[in-house]
Amino acid sequence: MIVSGNLSRSLCLLGSVAVFAACTPPPPKEKPADPKACTEYATKLCAEMGGDEAPNCVSTKATLDLLPPAACAAGLKDVAFTKTKLGDARKKCDELVTKLCTELGDKTQTCEMVRTQTKNFPPERCDMMLGRFPEVLADLKKMEAKNKPLATEQLAAIAGGAEVPSFGPADAKVTIVEFSDFQCPFCTRAANASHQIKEKYGDKVRFVFRQFPLSFHQNAHVAAEAALEAHRQGKFWELHDKMFADQQKLDRPSLEATAKEIGLDMAAFKKALDDKTHAATVDAEMKLGESVAVDGTPTMFLNGKRIGNPTDFDAISKEIDAALSGG
Known about the structure:
Elements: H1 2-23, H2 37-49, H3 55-64, H4 69-77, H5 79-89, H6 91-104, H7 109-118, H8 123-131, H9 133-147, H10 152-159, E1 166-167, E2 174-180, H11 185-201, E3 205-211, H12 220-232, H13 236-245, H14 252-261, H15 266-274, H16 279-291, E4 299-302, E5 305-306, H17 313-324
Parallel strand pairs: 2-3
Antiparallel strand pairs: 1-3, 2-4, 4-5
Helix pairs in contact: 2-3, 2-4, 2-5, 6-7, 6-8, 6-9, 11-13, 12-13, 12-15
């Protein structure tokens, strides 16, 4: 009986445990994280980094692609913390912008460029630039000097008169001056743009061509001399077009062949190149370009203002239209 009683009590206890286990609800299952959590997290962070194209945003997206959605969901719950950390990291870039714009002028074009571009800089780059601040500032001041419109006397000097290769009337409302190099591949695009300018605007624009052969282009100087001899003979634009059409043919024999093709007086042409008749003029035009901060080709000025993209006709056309309308 005793054993039976003990067994009875044991069974009763076991039964109670069983009943207790059966009646206690299981712990709730954790809801799976939204598979789009990492995309949402990246969107929120990239908004703080300057947009989808910012380098930091691109690298952040690549990192988040490796994380499980649960990790991104956890980050979304306290995204303000991450934003604060990002803001702290950007302080160096904010400091850089403030210091540069104070020196350059808050309303200058170069300051605006600094504001725009530093949004895409990683903080360590801003820190490096702060460490080399005098050098960075000096370079940007040179850039700002280029952005300033030329003085009236400077524009008159580079525009020249009838002795300079040009098309369009001298009293046109818009004067464009290009400094170019016949061996420069980008100058070919500017040459195409000059033809489009002539076709679209006719006598509304005066276009002036100036020589600026770069020292590392072996045939550029002699090509410039050849162009000036063609100008003396009244066929500058014919030779201009031929040379830009095939920049592989700028050595002396090729220049002579092209000159003959367009009908130049070959005896005079050869003598001009032999005697370096136009070499001093080419050098003088280069000095003229340097005086207005030309350091590469093509460089164009519209009424004394440097054109931002001298190889893009649409961009040039907008600036011409603005000038013609008094903008």
